[in-house]
Amino acid sequence: MHEDWSFDVFKRLLDVCLALILTALFLPVWIVIPLLITFDSPGPIFYRHRRVGKNGKEFWMYKFRSMVPDADEILFKKDKRLLKKFKDGDWKLESDPRITTLGRIMRSITIDEFPQLLNVLKGEMSMVGPRAYLKKELEEQQAKYPETRQWIKNILSIKPGITGPWQTSGRNIVPFNVRAKMDAEYARKKSMLEDIRILVKTPGAMFSKW
Question: For 206-210, which contacts have Cβ atoms below 8 Å and span 24 or more sequence positions?
Fold first, then answer.
């Protein structure tokens, strides 16, 4: 119990310090990107999505908008073929037609995820942690991969992260059952050294997308 308490305290301190440092260090991003999004395509600057956090509590996760404004409606209501491809790919699309020109550039260097620093400061996310999953995604993927049910409890025992074990694994396309196992193993470790290792690897993983 004491180890869990000390881990949570040090992890929160690291989260807040890093989030504040990165927000200040990349201040130009917060000014330039909204302007570029406005000129690139009509619609809001930010995009928010309901995700499942610690203990199964849902929260709004923020991103810079990298898709057309009605992206969710296109996927879930208008384009059945795209939705099938999305679900067959474990809730990922290798080539997503809804992404804007600027959005592809932002995603290639992960700039679209910068607003998640706000989620970290609010205490909803951590700098390092499991993927922040959609509720429907968890339900459907557990039905598709029954073996993952044993890992979801571990995954939801901690806050989701901006970066994590599978994001820095060197593999861009990772099936859900592999991601879930990696996330669950990370959650069970509760190691600050592992967090630091992942944080050190993250810049390399970001630029490897180029």
Answer: 206/109, 206/110, 207/109, 208/170, 209/107, 209/108, 209/109, 209/110, 209/172, 210/108, 210/109
Contact status, residue 176 vs residue 131, Cβ threshold 8 Å: no
Section 179-185 average pLDDT = 94
Model confidence band, residue 108 (pLDDT cutoffs 50, 70, 90): confident
Angle at 90 between CA 115 and CA 104, to 5 degrees: 40
pLDDT > 90? residue 126: yes
Inter-residue contact 178 to 166 (CB < 8 Å): yes
Angle between helices 192-207 and 2-25 (to 10 degrees): 30
Tell me phi and psi for residue 86, to 5 degrees.
Answer: -65, -50
- 153 backbone dihedrals φ, ψ, rounded to 5°: -60, -40
What are the structure tokens assigned to 98, written together? 């809804």
* Residue the block writes with tokens 């992890």: 11
